Amino acid sequence: MEYHLKTPVPERAIRKLKMGDLVYVTGMVITARDEAHLKALEIHQKGGKPPVDFKGVGIFHCGPIMQKVNGRWTVVAAGPTTSERMEIFQDKFIEAFRPSIIIGKGGMGDRTAKACATYGCVYGAFTGGAALLAVKGIKRVKDVFWLEELGMPECLWVYETEDFGPMIVTIDSHGNNMTKNIDELMKAKMKRIMDSMEG
């Protein structure tokens, strides 16, 4: 199935999505990599609030290349970053801030999958190496936070998007994880091949 979601995405819409569905997002998508995740969680743990509300929006694992033109930020390239790096704290981030869709490449693991099922979130795999495809769906830069502190690739870029995608739902909110399934199938196939060679 193909879905066009508008942020903030209600949980009931996220719960409809199933592994393998195609998703496009219109509305707010915020870039956040390792350092931004850690800073946001640190603020949350101290009882504070980050400068932007993550609830119901898309969180994009991306270190974009940005350029200022006539005083306004524009996106030059915005390819997805490998999401596995965020696995160690993505579950805590989902629990604390309740985003609707995590966007990146390469898939994520059990901790993220469990948080998606518990709190109503999905992981959408964006095509790796397609930095210009992502730019097509970004209509404007609404804001930027922590730029001076974290630098261009690590800070929070707040994008207004229109049909940003396509993304394949590889982790849905029902405990399914396509990346893990494929990994297990590959390992089983490799074992069969090795066993047949030994025999």
Low-confidence stretches: none
Q: Compute the CA-based radius of gyration.
A: 17 Å
Tally of individual helices: 7
DSSP strand content: 25-35%
Structural class: alpha/beta
Neighbour order of strands in the largest sheet: 2-3-6-7-9
What CATH calls the topology is fumarase
The CATH class is identified as: Alpha Beta
Whole-number average pLDDT? 92
Query: How many domain modules?
Result: 1
The CA-CA distance between the termini, in Å, is 44 Å
Percentage of residues in helical conformation: 25-40%
Q: What's the architecture in CATH terms?
A: Alpha-Beta Barrel
Quick take:
By secondary structure, the protein is of the alpha/beta class. It contains seven helices and nine strands; from the N terminus they run βαβαβββαβαβαβαβα.
